[in-house]
Structure formats: structure tokens, C-alpha cells
Amino acid sequence: MNGKVVVSQLGARMHYAVPRIFVNHGQLAHFYTDITATKGWPGIVKVLPTKILPSAIRRLAGRAPKGVPNALTTTFASFGALSAIRRSRIGNIADETSHAVWAGSRFSTLVAKSGFHGASGLYAFSGDALEQMEAAKQQGMWTVVEQMVAPRDVLEELVSREMTRFPEWMGLPKQNPFARSFADRERAEWSLADLILCPSEFVRRHVIACGGPAERCVLLPYGVDPKFSPERKARRPGPLRVLTAGEVGLRKGSPYVAAAAEILGGATNFRMVGRLNLADGPRQELSTKVELKGVVPRAEMAAEFRWADIFLLPSVCEGSATVVYEALASGLPVVTTENTGTVVRDGIEGFIVPVGDPEAIASAIDRFVADDELRAAMSLNATRRASEFTVNEYGKRLVAALSVLPAERHNAGVRTIACIGS
Known about the structure:
This protein is an alpha/beta fold. It is 41% helix and 14% strand. It has two domains: 5-223 and 390-404, Rossmann fold, CATH 3.40.50; 240-386, Glycogen Phosphorylase B (Rossmann fold), CATH 3.40.50.2000. The chain is globular, with a radius of gyration of 21 Å.
């Protein structure tokens, strides 16, 4: 791939790694996103004292696409602010899906209307890409869509199963009137894409099962460069410290964290970092077993990883959770599930446990309680594994995956390539 690329993304995914990779390779034509602290009126947050700001504004202050020139960046700050307000009012999975359809369509339309700056190709993200992909194809550009999480049909099925199992958390499952619209957007994006990048075999397998073209699905694990120290000291005396990060709710397997904490009792201290997505009753019960820290800005996550002895993420549906990469880079052994799309290898950097099995989670954690030499060995393995999944290594894999695409605009149909492994 020698041509220029337009990248569009909602939010600060992976700290803007994708546009930065194309900048480093001299291939970024333009970058579109919703809102940052480096463009327009939101920049005011950079001059305010951080300590007095509410967490939402602190998170906005952290949205600074370092390494991506302002001159190559367009934001839609009014849309971004409105989207944040609407997102704050989400009360259930139907609201979440409705917002995702609205925000993805609106953002994609804004990008399409703003133009492609002479680029050869477009790199966009699933659910947010359809309108701009259609416009790009009309101009003879190639298109790539990154499937960030398992397809919506799969997500709905897995979360509905959890709602049935834990109705007190979010109520019993109801038909989501917006799920079909989102799933239809995904399938339309797949049909337009020259490549569908899947961050894990879990995602790739389900894209194909949901009708995606296997010959255009490329396995491409992520990479992160967190500024966290991988050096782990000897475990502190007292209970083993177990950290979970991400939204506290059914999709992240939070009920199983609570159940494992109850099984292990005083042998462990559990801490959960992230937005709470559960009813008041379960929240109060959960707080008796687990320390609920709430939302922590990215800049403050290093302290959370330093606090922990191991990391736990028993999600029922992900793409490839970047927080696991960050935990590995912090030298933390990881207990997780196959559904997180993890790069953790069972018995090497941690343990892969079955989805929805708190006894298996507790058993895996108890091995670290009983054997600190095991924890120390897996900590070293975690650091080594993380070195294979840096942003630099991810960039090499990404550029290699896109190397089959043309340097100039063309009028050919969708291309077919062989799948690329990690």
C-alpha cells in the first residue's frame, strides 16, 4: 500500500494509534474524529486546573491525538458534545443501540460530506462507516472497515443470555428495536469493504458466521504503548489484589467477578474500575464484595495497574480488549475468557477460563494466592508477550495487511485476499 489514507474514528480508540501509524508511514491524507482537546472550543479544557474538573471533562482533556498534525485533523465538536450528552442519558441496551445507530450514521455522513482529500483509500470502524464507505466507493477508493467487536447479532444474543441469568442487574431481555438497524449497517459495510480487519479469532469467526466474506476477513491483533512500568515488585503481604477494568455490567462478566470474590473471601481484594451499568440493588450488593472505583481517566490508570497483583476480565463479548494488552504491558498475569479476543496464552501469561464460570475464575486466582512464584513467572511472561503487541509491531502488521491495496484510486470491484494470521 503506497497511497494516502483517510482515517475516521469516533472517540480516542487506542489513543489514536491508527492515524498515528499512517502519519509515521507518510500515508495519512486526513483524520476525522468527533471531538478532541486540541481543536476548536474544547481546547479550553487544557488550560483549566485538572483537579477541579469533573471526570467527563478530564477525559475530554485526555483526547489529544499526539503525533497526528492538527492541520490534517477535522473534528465535529458540536456533534461530539451532543453525542456525549445523549450518551449520558442511556438507560438500557436499546438506548445504547439507538445512540450507536444515530451517532454512527451522523458522524459517517459528516465525514462523507467533508471529502477525502485526494486519498486512495478509507479506513473506518464498524457501525460508523457506511455512508462514508458508499461515498468513497463512488470515487473509486478502496475501503477498509475494522470490526471492533463481535457482530451485533452475536452481542445481542450473548448479552440477552446474561440478562436472563441475572434479571436483577438490567431486567429481563426485551426485543431491541434498533438491533436490526445496527446489524444491517454492519453487513452493508462488510459488502463494501475490500478488507474487514478483525482483532481476534473470536471476532473473525463470528463475522463469517453472520455472513461476512471469509476471504476478506483479516486477523489483526492490536498493540498498545502504555506508559506503565512493567517492573513488578514482590507481592505485598496480605490478600492478593485483583483488578478489573472496563464498564461494570453484564457484557464484562461483572456478576462472575462478584461470585468469584465471594468464593475466595478474605484471600483476595477485588477492585473494579469503570462506569457502572447496573441497577441500584445489584450495585449495593456488589459493593459489599468488590471495591467500586468508578470511572478513572486514562492518565490515572497507571496507578491502578501498580496497585494490582493480577488482572481479571471475564467478558462474555469483546473484540480484543485493549485493557488486557495494557495489563500485560504492566507486568500483570491475566485471568480472562476466550470471548475477550485475548492474546493471553493459557498457562503462560495467565489463564483462560470458560465464560460464565465463577468457580473456574476463583480456582485460577487461587493458584496465584497459593503460589507467588507462579505469579512472578507469569508476570515476566506477560511483559515479554506485551513486547510482541506494541503499537510499532501493530503498525507493521497493519501496513502489511493493507499492502495488497492499490496506491491510486480505481474502478475495480471489491478485492479478494487471503487471510493473514498474527
